[in-house]
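Quick start: what a row looks like.
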Amino acid sequence: MEGGKIMPAGYEYDPDRGLVLSRYYGIVTDDDVVRETQAIAGDQRIGPETRQLLDLVDVERADVSPQLLLTAVAVRCSEPGGYGPNKLAVVMKDEALSDMLHTYMRATKVVGSPLDMHVFSTREEAMAWLNTAEDEAPAAG
């Protein structure tokens, strides 16, 4: 929390499960994405083998530029210094965010990312997929 204001983004790392739990809420801006991307990239505990659940259920609106998403993907995937994780489950209910996610997925192809990303409507579905072994993973959806 900065200056008494609730931040519209945050993450926790669970070392026992090798899992990053990220949550955005309210109105998400470029600054929010930059702040979280830099924080996760600087966390030495997080690497490509780490899985990530990105919870966007409580996002009202995303004011995030496509250029910033490309930069965030590049930071995520760059070597050295890329932070992974390479398995990302996104939970969202608002179809208005789908444009942002499609832009993010296109950006992963531009930078040649090995990111395996799926979108779910519940945290339970997302966690079940994240806990699935690579050879049992469902087809991309």
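That is the whole record. Confidence is low (pLDDT under 50) at residues 1-5, 135-141. The CA atoms of residues 27 and 58 lie 9 Å apart.
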